[in-house]
């Protein structure tokens, strides 16, 4: 998993809960990297799971909710770092529909060792989208947070319903309806 | 600050340091990778660049060296680039001159050209387009064009074309067609039968004269094997050999006995020549046929006539021998009997009887001479010792020695006489007869006989001139005919000049005379060298 996901996550934890919380979850997680992350490095995803788990147990907030918040924070990082992607689209539905065929293709060009989820397009109209998320990471709420922010970016909102196809959350149907 | 917080900050600092170092390492690695990538790209670029230069110079070479005119025009027809050949074709000063191809189109061709240009734009290329153009110097040239569109990002921006001046080709083609037409008209209308066959003797072409000669219609002939149609198997063998000769490249002429459609035997004279294809290989032969059946029949008749003539000549010759021999012996008997009669009645006969006996004797003598001359005339046709070089000076000398020449007559040759090929005896007879006649018919107190000779192209011309009694012009024709003599004299048999005529004929010469009564005669004759 790209280092930026870790660094931004820890920055967010520090921002919301203080440097002590950052220290605590790193200490509790007994990470292979020792928690020394750089945005240009690549780290094992299990470290993120451990960090999330410990943050959840320390704060009493559900992991999915933590991912949601984190995604909303991460979106602003993307906005700052890759404004080009956003300029290419004028509609959130169009942008989301092209995650698989355009955005992820470009991501792989920049980060050849990135491990990306797949978003299979099931149905698309002008105002709606049904996609199936597949990833062993089960970070569907991270996706949800990014999607919410995408609509916000284009000054609109949407109701997004998640239906788990697999209970462990590795396969989830996203039903998106623009408001 | 509490110890806890210090510890937390220290750990955080440691992590930051570690993360920074990791980041630096990654960055260094990436920059090394980048450096090598850049180098590789530079190499690739150089390679591409040199490849490009190479291709470019190759293209430039093609552009300059191409034999045909090459021109690039924009969509409006303006010349963007052309090679020297193109400049020459369009009569421009140089390949840098400005021009517009559309201005060279003749008014009557504008529709045709704009249509073709549209199809060029639509299809992307055009081939074998032929058009008359008016060059910069107002010459009309016929050009052949292959052209294609040049695209820039899918948009047609220009057209390139290769042009060839085919004005001469076209003229040549036309004159070739005219020649062909002429040739066709000749073969169709000529009176000789024309036949073209391939190497298997199959008929490829025949003209109407051939059809007429053979009795077949054209479609009955084409594709058939000529020898099967016209020839017996043995004659076919001959023609097969002749065809083989022709395939080796020999021309030849020969006679053929053929059967026409009606089954009639005809004789054809055939002149054949091998027919070559463009690679110089023999692909058959062309024969010219002339029907010589009528001629052939005449020849056969002539041959038969000759044989008959020879036979009757021989018979006549034999007859003359027999007759002269048989006639001579009763003459000798009569002569003997007359002399016995004279002896037995010696002194008893009166003057008139004796004179009559004398007349009988001289007539018998004349008869004897006549018969001898007939014998010699009839044996003239025999080929004896012909065609030996004969020195005519010697011949004249011998005659002088043997002939009786009265004192008052002179005989001389004014010129040196040549040596000619002939029969010595006959040539002696020839001169002897003419000189003898001159002596015989001399009526002057001072007679002369002159022999002259001058050289002509193929012949020698001789003349024997005298100042004797001369011959009236009305008799000039008949004196050369046998048994014609103008003066009855005891030694004139009327055969002498006939013998002369015959000998001159045998030597492929002519005989004639100039003469007037009272002043003398000149006999001319020619003998072949």
TrEMBL record, chain A:
Q: Which InterPro entries match?
A: H-NOX_domain_sf (IPR038158), Heme_NO-bd (IPR011644), NO_sig/Golgi_transp_ligand-bd (IPR024096)
Q: Residues in domain Heme NO-binding?
A: 2-160
Q: Which GO terms describe its molecular function?
A: heme binding
> This protein's superkingdom?
Bacteria
> Which Pfam families would you find in this protein's record?
HNOB
What is the name attached to this protein's record? Heme NO-binding domain-containing protein
Q: Please give the organism.
A: Seonamhaeicola maritimus
From TrEMBL, chain B:
Organism field: Seonamhaeicola maritimus
Q: What EC number(s) would the UniProt record show?
A: 2.7.13.3
* NCBIfam families from the UniProt entry: sensory_box
The record ties this protein, via InterPro entries, to: HATPase_C_sf (IPR036890), HATPase_dom (IPR003594), His_kinase_dom (IPR005467), HisK_dim/P_dom (IPR003661), HisK_dim/P_sf (IPR036097), PAC (IPR001610), PAS (IPR000014), PAS-assoc_C (IPR000700)
GO biological process terms, alphabetically, are: regulation of DNA-templated transcription
Q: Which UniProt keywords apply?
A: Coiled coil, Kinase, Phosphoprotein, Transferase
* Domain Histidine kinase, residue spans: 322-529
Stated name of the protein? histidine kinase
Keyword Ribosomal protein listed = no
Sorted alphabetically, which PANTHER family does this protein's record hold?
A: PAC DOMAIN-CONTAINING PROTEIN, PHYTOCHROME-LIKE PROTEIN CPH1
Locate the coiled-coil region(s) and give their ranges.
6-58
In Gene Ontology terms, what is one molecular function of this protein? phosphorelay sensor kinase activity
Catalyzes what?
A: ATP + protein L-histidine = ADP + protein N-phospho-L-histidine
Checking Gene3D superfamilies in the record gives:
1.10.287.130, Histidine kinase-like ATPase, C-terminal domain (3.30.565.10), PAS domain (3.30.450.20)
Q: PAC domain: from which residue to which, for each copy?
A: 252-304
């Amino acid at each position: 998993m790209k280092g930026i996901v870790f660094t931004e996550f820890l920055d967010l934890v520090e921002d919301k809960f203080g440097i002590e919380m950052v220290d605590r979850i790193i200490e509790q997680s007994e990470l292979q990297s020792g928690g020394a992350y750089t945005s240009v490095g690549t780290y094992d995803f299990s470290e993120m799971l451990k960090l999330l788990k410990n943050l959840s147990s320390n704060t009493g907030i559900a992991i999915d909710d933590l991912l949601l918040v984190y995604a909303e924070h991460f979106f602003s990082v993307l906005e700052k770092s890759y404004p080009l992607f956003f300029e290419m689209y004028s509609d959130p539905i169009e942008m989301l529909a092209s995650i698989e065929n355009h955005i992820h293709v470009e991501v792989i060009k920049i980060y050849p060792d990135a491990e990306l989820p797949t978003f299979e397009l099931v149905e698309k109209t002008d105002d709606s989208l049904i996609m199936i998320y597949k990833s062993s990471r089960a970070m569907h709420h991270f996706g949800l947070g990014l999607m919410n922010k995408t609509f916000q970016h284009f000054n609109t909102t949407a109701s997004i319903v998640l239906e788990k196809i697999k209970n462990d959350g590795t396969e989830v149907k996203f039903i998106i309806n623009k408001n | 600050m509490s110890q806890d917080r210090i510890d937390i900050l220290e750990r955080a600092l440691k992590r930051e340091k570690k993360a920074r170092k990791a980041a630096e390492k990654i960055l260094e690695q990436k920059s090394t990778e980048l450096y090598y990538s850049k180098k590789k790209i530079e190499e690739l670029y150089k390679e591409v660049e040199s490849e490009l230069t190479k291709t470019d110079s190759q293209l430039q070479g093609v552009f300059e060296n191409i034999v045909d005119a090459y021109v690039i025009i924009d969509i409006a027809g303006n010349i963007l680039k052309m090679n020297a050949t193109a400049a020459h074709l369009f009569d421009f000063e140089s390949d840098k001159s400005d021009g517009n191809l559309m201005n060279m189109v003749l008014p009557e061709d504008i529709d045709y050209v704009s249509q073709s240009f549209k199809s060029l734009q639509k299809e992307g290329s055009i081939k074998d387009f032929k058009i008359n153009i008016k060059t910069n110097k107002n010459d009309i040239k016929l050009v052949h064009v292959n052209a294609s569109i040049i695209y820039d990002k899918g948009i047609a921006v220009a057209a390139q074309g290769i042009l060839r001046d085919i004005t001469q080709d076209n003229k040549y083609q036309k004159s070739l067609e005219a020649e062909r037409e002429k040739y066709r008209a000749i073969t169709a209308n000529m009176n000789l039968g024309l036949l073209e066959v391939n190497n298997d003797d199959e008929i490829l072409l025949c003209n109407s004269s051939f059809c007429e000669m053979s009795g077949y219609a054209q479609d009955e002939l084409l594709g058939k094997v000529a020898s099967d149609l016209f020839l017996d198997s043995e004659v076919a063998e001959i023609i097969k050999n002749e065809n083989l000769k022709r395939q080796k490249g020999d021309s030849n002429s020969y006679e053929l006995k053929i059967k026409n459609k009606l089954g009639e035997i005809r004789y054809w004279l055939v002149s054949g020549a091998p027919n070559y294809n463009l690679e110089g290989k023999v692909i058959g032969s062309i024969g010219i046929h002339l029907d010589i059946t009528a001629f052939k029949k005449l020849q056969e008749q002539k041959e038969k006539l000759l044989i008959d003539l020879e036979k009757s000549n021989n018979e006549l010759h034999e007859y003359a021998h027999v007759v002269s021999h048989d006639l001579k012996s009763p003459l000798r008997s009569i002569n003997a009997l007359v002399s016995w009669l004279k002896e037995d009645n010696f002194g008893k006969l009166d003057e008139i009887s004796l004179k009559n006996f004398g007349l009988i004797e001289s007539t018998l003598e004349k008869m004897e001479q006549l018969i001898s001359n007939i014998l010699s005339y009839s044996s003239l046709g025999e080929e004896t010792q012909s065609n030996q070089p004969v020195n005519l000076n010697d011949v004249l000398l011998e005659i002088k020695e043997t002939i009786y020449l009265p004192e008052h007559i002179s005989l001389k040759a004014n010129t040196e006489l040549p040596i000619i090929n002939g029969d010595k005896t006959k040539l002696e007879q020839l001169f002897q007869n003419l000189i003898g006649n001159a002596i015989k018919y001399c009526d002057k107190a001072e007679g002369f006989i002159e022999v002259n000779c001058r050289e002509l192209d193929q012949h020698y011309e001789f003349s024997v001139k005298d100042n004797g009694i001369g011959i009236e012009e009305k008799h000039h024709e008949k004196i050369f005919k046998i048994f014609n003599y103008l003066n009855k004299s005891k030694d004139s048999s009327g055969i002498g000049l006939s013998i002369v005529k015959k000998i001159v004929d045998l030597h492929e010469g002519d005989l004639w005379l100039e003469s007037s009564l009272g002043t003398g005669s000149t006999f001319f004759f020619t003998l072949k060298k």
